[in-house]
Design brief:
By secondary structure, the chain is mainly alpha-helical. The chain contains 15 helices and six strands. The strands form two sheets. It has a three-stranded antiparallel beta sheet with strand order 1-2-3, with helices on both faces. The protein has a three-stranded antiparallel beta sheet with strand order 4-6-5.
């Protein structure tokens, strides 16, 4: 039995856009599969090299559902990046026998929880999509009620004063759909206009089956099953997954893959946006450094011991401090370094004990210090 469903303009546009996204995703997966087949060396998964092109952090005059998904992916990837650097630091400390339990490292776990955690923004969005009379405005009101007081440093209402970013968008999208999130890079103002329609799975099974029967070879490649949203992991709801739910699940799968790999990170900086040689746009470069989370790398370094010198290098560089006591440099390098360190402290007011305060520590082969 055929049932005709009449859609209004907004619902029809959302179904069209979602179908286009699914077709693009399926065709991209097909192309990627063909490339992997062509490059396959027959060595098995144990010998593969994966390249992950990280999403760029986005902050425009108008930021919607797509920007929230992209920036959430950036938050998750930034968390993995920071965790990898911290583990690398801690592994070196462990090898050298250096105590590091007093070091507090930076973290963006609160931002990740606000966006994708239980009761977070994506969870409220999925919940609002399931309500018969749910609306974008009601979603934002629930976010205000849930996060404005409990997450004051991370979530806030839009500001509409003179020169504020919210003032320009209020007339266009309505002030009741605006809110702000403090990401690791900077604060971003979002508008929730149209989020419910974008988050729902708008493609019907009949449409995907019709597309799969196309006479055009490439267009018929993604079958109906391929275009439909993939199921979520075991133990999650049996409801049709939302767009944000599928996106978060793909991030979880990516995280599981990264955990079993040896990771290397490359940060690319463009000197300018016009591709002009011999031109450095300082503001443009600074914004990239902030968006790439380079500041977090510096924070991790500052939280631990920035100076890590092999004992031979330390003694050679600072032997002039005890030129009148050359006997302090005799003996094993580690013991000589400790004597030199204490002698240097004795020449300062207050005779600070850097070893007792852990401003410096003696490792197996290196001296670790904070400047």
């Amino acid at each position: 039995e055929a049932v005709t469903v009449h859609l209004d303009t907004a619902a029809a546009a959302a179904a069209r856009d979602d179908l286009a996204r699914r077709v693009y995703s399926a065709l991209w997966s097909h192309v990627l599969g063909r490339v992997n087949e062509a490059l396959g060396g027959g060595g098995g998964e144990a010998r593969t090299i994966g390249l992950l092109d990280v999403f760029g952090f986005e902050s425009f005059e108008r930021n919607g559902f797509e920007q929230l998904c992209i920036n959430y992916a950036n938050e998750v990837l930034q968390g993995w990046f920071m965790d990898a650097l911290i583990k690398r630091e801690q592994a070196e400390y462990a090898r050298e026998g250096v105590v590091c339990d007093h070091i507090e490292y930076p973290s963006n776990a609160e931002q990740v929880s606000l966006l994708g955690g239980k009761g977070g923004i994506f969870a409220l969005l999925d919940e609002e999509c399931r309500i018969p009379r749910g609306s974008d405005e009601a979603l934002v009101e629930k976010m205000h009620a849930g996060f404005e007081k409990s997450r004051p440093g991370l979530y806030s209402r839009a500001r509409f004063g003179a020169g504020a970013a919210g003032a320009a968008l209020a007339a266009e999208v309505g002030p009741e759909t605006l809110f702000c999130v403090r990401h690791y890079a900077e604060e971003v103002q979002y508008t929730a206009r149209g989020w419910l329609e974008k988050n729902r799975s708008a493609v019907r099974h009949e449409v995907t089956e019709l597309l799969a029967g196309s006479d055009y070879p490439l267009l018929s490649l993604p079958s109906g099953a391929a275009l439909e949203a993939p199921p979520l992991s075991t133990g999650q709801s049996s409801r049709a997954p939302s767009v944000s739910g599928v996106f978060r699940e793909s991030l979880r799968s990516l995280g599981a893959a990264l955990l079993v790999t040896q990771q290397h990170f490359v940060r690319c900086i463009k000197p300018n946006s016009t591709k002009t040689p011999h031109s450095l746009d300082a503001a443009y470069v600074q914004r990239q450094l902030r968006y790439l989370g380079v500041g977090a790398v510096l924070e991790i370094g500052r939280a631990g011991y920035q100076v890590k010198l092999p004992y031979a290098s330390f003694l050679g560089r600072y032997r002039c401090v005890v030129f009148d006591q050359p006997g302090l440099l005799d003996g094993p390098p580690r013991e000589a370094a400790e004597r030199l360190l204490r002698a240097a402290a004795g020449k300062l007011d207050g005779n600070p004990d850097w070893l007792a305060s852990r401003e410096a520590q003696l490792g197996t082969s290196k001296l670790f210090m904070r400047p």
